Amino acid sequence: MKNKTFLTFTFACLAAASCISENEAPVVSQDPARDEILMTKLTGNPTAEHMKGNLLVFLDKETTLRIEKEGIGTVTSELFAEVEVSDFRPALRSPKNRELARELGLDRWFSVSFDESIPVHAFASELAKRPEICALQFNSLPRLASDLKAVPFSAGASPCAAKEKSIPFDDPYNGDQWNLVNIGDKSIAKTAREGADVGVKDAWTLTAGSPDVVVAVCDAPVKYTHPDLAGSMWVNEAEKNGTTGVDDDDNGYVDDIHGYNFISDGAIRWDVEGESGHGTHVAGIIAAVNGNGIGISSIAGGSGKGDGVRIMNCQLFEGPNGGGDKEMADALIYAADNGACIAQCSYGYPAYIFSSDDNYISTLPLEYRALKYFTDPSNSNHPSIGSNLVVYAAGNEATSNSDYPGALPVCVSVTALGPDFLPAGYTNYGRGCNIAAPGGDFMIGDDLDGYYNKCMILSTSISETVGDYVWMEGSSQACPHVSGVAALGISYAGKLGKKFTGDQFRDILLTSVNDINHLLTDGIKPYGEYTIGLKIYHNRMGTGAIDAWKLLMQIEGTPSVMVKTGQMCSADISEYFGESAKDLTYLGIDVRTEAKKALGLAAAPTVEGGILKIYCTKNASAKITVSAIAGGSHLGGGDKIGGTEIKREISIVSRGVHSSNGGWL
After folding, report:
1. Domain total in the chain
2. Structural domain includes residue 247
């Protein structure tokens, strides 16, 4: 892959050296094989790249309580009597949910700073002697596993084979957004498939987002002054209307108007040399303002009436630099405490690093506990979902398991597809991967006379570095498609007054999919100078490809029937009318004008014996209403005795990529 755009950490792990398990507070290992006390307390790998002059330590309960009662100064002088420290403070600012934070042990993690000329390993060995310190962790530094190069977008520079405008907003560049609506345009890729998108076009007729849904983009900086994003940014009104340099809302963060920069511990900034625009690109996929006549469209950016979801930026990367475990944890807790109901995370630790969930949990206990904090039901930030949702990219190493933390059951891990509805050559797959979404696939367009960038994802970026709009690809780009669709779903649930537990919502999200397995049974995919065997991906890309319409139908409780575009299809709808559906007398099917037009019905649909027959000529989704008689062959009323009319609304999903099994795995 020429341009991988997934942010990863290079972080080797040392499972045997860990002393922290998932279900209990960290304790000192009693393994007699340890010949160094440090190794009984160390989590992570001391040979990995880490921050100089800094350590994370986990204190026992008694010492933590002393700090709360007596203050940190007294304990500091005792704890570090034999070493010199420049700073000792809680690793995290005070979480709002103190009871949960204490239950998770988050209050017992502290950050120790010291002279950078002292080797961290040597300093850690000294601290490990203290019985009050139960565990230590080197504050590992991330390393970007990609050059994050972006291809600048130039309006009108590439041919467009589209015969009609597919996206119902006046944003001028959305004709190049196959990820939103894919009409099978062969100028994008010769193998482009109609319907290989997120199924959002018809979902927009029901909702285009809601401002009370806040998505925390945990990534590089989001340019909050971008003309296509300014109207979608979350705003901390107390800080916006307050005094510069003052923590006006007393949340522990100064001037956090649109989020916070956890690298520089201050304002969000995108003027650092080496900035890629990645975070701004991700934010644009979710919530660039729709219908403003500017740039691109997005999944949940509203309808042009200020009704889109809001983006909170938790900046974890600044130019070539990134935060460590402490910063990741701090960002997740900030997001939970300040109103985000979705955490969009296009970063991770490469798939080859961790061998299991336990291995990850024991190696990076602080971040794991922060994930538990964000997703705990007591921290839910939207009335329609019982716990917040966290979405991670699966990774770009083309290997057979998801990166962490995405592989954890508490997270949703997203694999990447190209405009051909096939796995992108770079995507991870297999164990821990939950669902697929468009991520772009640069290589499949390299026979299109220089326009192969159109196989990537077009979104917003930073004009000062690369341009207002650029093409990028990766599971980093697939991930925000799922976050955006989830944001639409929560918006619609709120509109309908529906409520789901966190598990229920995640269940319907992961089953609102179109099948891709029927394309992965055999054959190969050209990939630049190489070919990829498709069979290795079968049943390993997650449940299927995310579909926004199907999610909204599940939220409604409306059943969906999948049909193949361009042919007469028969669908058994008996499950919606009971076991005797084949014997019912059907009165007819009501199809509204908008539905007829959307589906491109070649003839009026019919139903007999519980079998619906329908011919759709367009790739679309719409609802029809089927009527039947309950009790007898004719209706009662007036001077007649007869049955009662019953009606069922049914969603028709017409897709060019439909499989014979109805779209379910």
Report:
1. 3
2. yes
